[in-house]
């Protein structure tokens, strides 16, 4: 005879066996006015609290979005609507947006380590990773240090070594900054200048939030980019790579793209004619379409004897250059 307690246990096990899978929920993409208040926060194992915005399909492929220097998660707001079938997690890097801004440190290793710990904190074993500018360098290092955590990698306006230093426009302007920074100053307008129109409400909010980044963060990142060179780490990156670049990028010009091509000869490169460093703000629909198409590819290694190109005529099968 089965006791009541044992019967209850058997019923519980049977219920769990037939319990429905988690239902996908579409997490709304915040409007520009809602963005700052939509941020959540998670404390990482290293004690740093990172702010982030989660949106899209709660059961979709996890996709980590890493913004650029003095931007924040809002940077991805224009492309997010066309990527919402994914579980999008857009973080504020340390020192940016609503994340903690410790006195130290702001090297690529710090940003990459935070990103890795963020994935751990969110319970994500492997993700697609998309990075812009500074975020693309953090993404490269994340993929090099933790190849098991990065399924695919999208580098937007990227390089392997920023360079710069005294005598360059960025160095000479950033090292002169004093708090409070005026978002309407000529430097900030130049910092957020684009060769093509960008949503005005977005750009005003982005520039205002950038001006609120503490001076020690501006300087910490600047020094980190000066001494950081990821070239030696690139052979450690195993994830398939898509590179998006605007041909009028004033920060990372053609010489930087040649560095990337040498470092990642198997990467897919897409050039946006007439676009600048923030081409995914200038042409968000086109950028999102290319990203989505790339991430939808079957990125598992091809069977032995198959070069993975999908072509039988000797062509690469790579997409044509992007024309906005």
Structural description of this entry:
This protein is an alpha/beta fold. It has one domain (21-295): Alpha/Beta hydrolase fold, catalytic domain (Rossmann fold, 3-Layer(aba) Sandwich). Helices cover 32% and strands 15% of the residues. The chain has ten helices and nine strands. It has helices spanning 4-18, 108-121, 134-145, 169-174, 186-191, 200-211, 215-227, 254-263, 279-282, 284-295, and strands spanning 26-27, 40-43, 49-57, 62-66, 87-91, 127-132, 150-156, 241-246, 268-272. Strands 1, 2, 3, 4, 5, 6, 7, 8 and 9 form a nine-stranded mixed sheet that branches. Helix 3 (134-145) links the parallel strand 6 (127-132) and strand 7. The longest helix has 15 residues, at 4-18. The chain starts with a helix and ends in a 29-residue tail after the last helix.
